[in-house]
Amino acid sequence: MHPAAWAALGPLLWACGLALRGGMLYPRESPSRERKELHGLWSFRADFSENRQRGFEQRWYRSPLRESGPTLDMPVPSSFNDVGQDRQLRSFVGWVWYEREVTLPQRWTQDLGTRVVLRIGSAHYYAIVWVNGVHVVEHEGGHLPFEADISKLVQSGPLSSCRITIAINNTLTPHTLPPGTILHKTDTSKYPKGYFVQNTNFDFFNYAGLHRPVLLYTTPTTYIDDITVTTGVDQGTGLVDYQIFVQGSEHFQLEVRLLDQEGKVVAQGTGCRGQLQVPNAHLWWPYLMHEHPAYLYSLEVRLTTQTAAGPVSDFYTLPVGIRTIEVTEHQFLINGKPFYFHGVNKHEDADIRGRGFDWALLVKDFNLLRWLGANAFRTSHYPYAEEVLQLCDRYGIVVIDESPGVGIVLAQSYGNQSLQHHLEVMGELVRRDKNHPAVVMWSVANEPASFLPPAGYYFKTLIAHTKALDPSRPVTFVTNSNYEADLGAPYVDVICVNSYYSWYHDYGHLEVIPLQLATQFENWYRTYQKPIIQSEYGAGAIPGFHQDPPVMFSEEYQKALLQQYHMVLDEKRKNYVVGELVWNFADFMTDQAPQRVMGNKKGIFTRQRQPKAAAFLLRERYWRLANDTWRPPAAGRSQCPEGGLFHV
Ligand code: GCB
């Protein structure tokens, strides 16, 4: 490999294999916990030096970034790629540097009984963090949070401020998730000296930067580190099994109370683990499956320790939805009732901010999902922000929670190093998302080359590991109908299959879809006898392009293609097909390529979230499916404008 490529990887090479430590509870305010969000403008510099190492050679973390050269204002959270006017920054590969000065409340710096934690929601892809020039943490993986306890640093001197420096490298290798490669173009008659590009095997833009909230929060020094909740139902009685992990002391008391939505205590317990029983429990139901979907209880945990100064308590409140999940040979059951996924695949993607978290965008997306009558989505192709899952819990939108295992197609990506990392990522994902009632299944990968011989061992190990981490949820990975052999499918609980008939094959021949799709379902079911979800299908449509009879890229073609799929889905859902997720919710940005017109246009909404004709078709269908699959009691029925039983 060219030296510049190794340099671009930098510490990636020596820091792989970090072990999973402690819990990753979402930082919530409570009587014992404060939080300070570090949204807004950070100082920023991309290291354009040839080996991308100038920042380390000159130790940019040792003093304010502005002292080592010019800086830009960079919004956080946001991708850095699309906010500027610099073409080179848009496609930059290597280290970028973020910095922020923070003033801390006096209590945080002077009260030694306070623990101060820095939490980074996600940094794509490899991050190194310093506080006041001191290295505090590193993290590999662009879609999951990581933390550092910085109490000692901020409590050791007279300073009431601290300087946070974060170096982030977006270089992908065959062993990262997702994988990628650096390609050096060495023909000097065509490319300047040292020229390289990053190649990937996934169909979305590799946005980078601080994509999610960065914040500081406090806890007492003895604190609730993690909570695991699993739920069950026994003849109407809700069962809430809890386990609580404490750090900082071995001598403490734990009290646990479960409150309903009126604030009434419905069950209580003490100690690190136990079972709470809730007679006549309100179950957590998906949207459009019950008159009162998404019922959430609050699990209040209080930890008390004795200190020289008297008793000290830590409080944490976790939303809890009581529900069960079960998979049979041909059904996916939620609370014992057949559940049919009618929804979408999404991306975290929007104009200007790229993959950056944005509340307005999030609420708009949920309003669109509910307008559409969607009851589910898949977090294609990486874990989404925690705030997204919180809204799913609140609105009853069911989630297939996917790891960043997308584009695993190189033989090198099936070795031990990659597997080890993938196991760790599943550990981090389950640790973060295990308590969300909306999450009903883990997806370990999307369209891996599961026909390559090492894929059998790889997926057997990965799926067994994921089930051991969380025995309460089924596991899948998403395959492609084109694959002749699938060495991972024997290990999954549900078959998720993507196909693009009359789009990537038989262009324009919509009439072949019914036969090809029926054959697809019959083959998979015959081989595996497992429920099947059509996890992707769709067609590109450029908004405003019209042609009838339909031709590719017109809104009419997108609609007609979906309709052909729906005919078969309606037949097969009587048997073993348990869901359909259209590709994609909205248009999204990709790498530049002749087959992509300013990104992927398979959205049923534009990138600006305006409906194409297909959105109205799906809306009509999803409301009908909701009314077909769950018939509310007559008294609870109400007409939606299209004549369905539910309100829109
Ligand atoms: C797929 C991939 C998805 C692509 C989509 C397409 O199979 O899973 O990431 O964007 O096809 O539009 O080609």
From TrEMBL:
Keyword tags: Glycoprotein, Glycosidase, Hydrolase, Lysosome, Signal
GO MF terms on file? beta-glucuronidase activity; carbohydrate binding; signaling receptor binding
Question: What is the superkingdom listed in this entry's lineage?
Answer: Eukaryota
InterPro entries according to UniProt: Beta-gal/glucu_dom_sf, Galactose-bd-like_sf, GH, Glyco_hydro_2, Glyco_hydro_2_AS, Glyco_hydro_2_cat, Glyco_hydro_2_CS, Glyco_hydro_2_N
> Which SUPFAM superfamilies does the protein's record reference?
(Trans)glycosidases, beta-Galactosidase/glucuronidase domain, Galactose-binding domain-like
Q: Which GO terms describe its biological process?
A: carbohydrate metabolic process; glucuronoside catabolic process
Q: Does the keyword Glycoprotein apply?
A: yes
**Its EC number(s):** 3.2.1.31
Q: Which residues form the Glycosyl hydrolases family 2 sugar binding domain?
A: 36-220
Q: Which GO terms describe its cellular component?
A: extracellular space; lysosome
What EC class does the entry list?
hydrolase
Establish whether keyword Glycoprotein is in the entry. yes
Q: How does it assemble?
A: Homotetramer.
Known function:
Plays an important role in the degradation of dermatan and keratan sulfates.
- Name of this chain's protein: Beta-glucuronidase
Q: Which organism is it from?
A: Enhydra lutris kenyoni (northern sea otter)
What lineage, starting at the top, does this entry show? Eukaryota, Metazoa, Chordata, Craniata, Vertebrata
